[in-house]
């Protein structure tokens, strides 16, 4: 409610966004709850991208080559560091 007595909907929407922060998974494009006690994923500062917990758990043994194909051009374009590889040759995603 502003001084003129009208209801500013954009303010309400903004407040709702603050209460329910979300992040989009870089890999599957799923939008997940992020922040607070119930994060369904994480934000990898090093790579400047979000990853949902489903993608994280399905890539525990190293990044699926199918995902890697999507990730590398992005990292190159952004001049971000390429993660190291594990003994199987898969990229290991940082934990933050
Ligand atoms: Zn995902």
Query: Could you report the average pLDDT, rounded to the nearest whole number?
Result: 88
How many strands?
A: 4
Approximate shape: elongated
Low-confidence stretches: none
Radius of gyration: 18 Å
Q: What class, by secondary structure content?
A: alpha+beta
The hetero molecules present are:
zinc ion
Query: Would you list the SSEs in sequence order as H and E?
Result: HEEEEHH
- With strands numbered from the N-terminus, the spatial order across the biggest sheet is 1-2
Major sheet description: 2 strands, antiparallel
**CA(first)-CA(last) distance:** 40 Å
Helical coverage, percent range? 25-40%
How many structurally independent domains?
1
Q: Tell me the strand percentage band.
A: 5-15%
For this structure, the quaternary state is single chain
Q: What's the total helix number?
A: 3
What is the secondary structure topology, with strand pairs?
Blueprint: H1 9-19, E1 22-24, E2 31-33, E3 41-44, E4 49-52, H2 53-58, H3 65-78
Antiparallel strand pairs: 1-2, 3-4
Descriptive overview:
The radius of gyration is 18 Å and the shape is elongated. Helices cover 32% and strands 15% of the residues. A hairpin with a 6-residue loop joins strand 1 and strand 2. It has a two-stranded antiparallel ribbon with strand order 1-2. The mean pLDDT is 88. The termini are far apart. The protein is α+β, with helices and mostly antiparallel strands. The chain has one domain. The structure holds zinc ion. The site of zinc ion has 8 residues, from strand 4 and helix 2.
């Amino acid at each position: 409610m502003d001084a003129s007595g009208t209801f500013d909907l954009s303010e309400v929407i903004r407040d709702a966004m603050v209460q329910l922060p979300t992040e989009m998974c870089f890999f599957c494009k799923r939008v997940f709850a992020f922040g607070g006690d119930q994060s369904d994923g994480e934000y990898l500062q090093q790579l400047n991208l979000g990853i949902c917990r489903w993608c994280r758990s399905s890539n525990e043994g190293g990044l699926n080559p199918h995902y890697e194909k999507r990730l590398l051009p992005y990292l190159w374009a952004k001049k971000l560091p390429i993660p190291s590889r594990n003994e199987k040759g898969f990229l290991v995603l940082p934990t933050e």
